[in-house]
Amino acid sequence: MKPIVLFITKTCYLDAALEYIDEVKKFVTLHVIIEIDPFSKKMNISDVNNLPRKITFIEAKQLLSQKEYSNYKKYMDGCASFEFLIHQNNKSISLVSIKKSYLLFKKTKKIIPNYIHFDDVSIRLILFPFLVALLKTKLIINVHDPIQHSGEKNLKNIFARKIFYKKVSKFITFSKFSKSIFIENNKKKFCVNLNLKPYLFYLNYLNKNDDKKTKFSFIGRISAYKGIDIFLDAISILNKKYNNISYLIAGAPFNDTIGEKLVNQYQFENVEFKLKHLSNLELCNIIQESKIIVCPYRDATQSGIVMTALALNTPLIVSNQGGLPEYIEENITGMIANPDAVSIAAAIETFIIEPLKHLKLSEKIKNMDKAKFMIGESKILNLYSE
Hints:
six-stranded parallel β-sheet; alpha/beta; 36% helix
């Protein structure tokens, strides 16, 4: 008899979660609930215009546009249920969120899962772990970042971890680096490491007629730990030798000042800044137009941009920080550099002096054995067992 699993994720993790769901649903009876709120309705791969009022649970077909629903359907098929949990309130902790926790508990009692699997902690469902203690079910939780990124301290998240972690039987990380950091800080906790899978959902937005590759690009949230200034300092070095190379910095700033500061400090004619939220189509268009995606992070666990670029057959340059090197094969899927301007510039230069190198690596990504990203039946069933 298959184990019954309730998997609860959020829109901010949905690109990774859907690929996980697509494999796991084959081996367990899988119920899926996706949290969505006013701040996240257009986050990640979510593109919802309006949230319904006075409704907690809603099926995907009722919430998503017809086009978006067709994109999700492949992942939904084979799940025992697939719903969104609506948070209409802007506040993450409120009487309303307590009520939502209780309504989720009532739904969980009907499902009677063997395991409740949270895709990281949920501040809005902070009461739920206490209610779960009333059920004969075990709690599993994903740890996307075992320590918070530099410059992004979140006290609410720290508080939520303290609440959730006390109730959890198994933890999951997504890089060997993350697992080692997690165990170091949580010595008595049982931790399993799984691979992220390429985010194939983005193939829905691919412009198959456009093979033009012109830019070296950074994509993602504009935050201090991402090392965007390192990339720009590398461009400054390269501009002394090459004046016809195009670069792009694209993504929404973490705060009101960081994007403006970068634009004012680095006024290069060959650098375009797109400092805004990127739609799914814009994100894929940028990756398609890029010879290389550059991830010059100062610190990292793993990166969704890496998994998106790999899904779209675009090679990367990543810094040798955290778990990033675990997802890159040197001169196959990309290159690994030190997190400094000289090293990043040297890596970029190899693609400038060998104009076809990005195409060669792209072809290698297309032809690589995708089975290495699979979790596998044995590991999945071991995860959802005593």
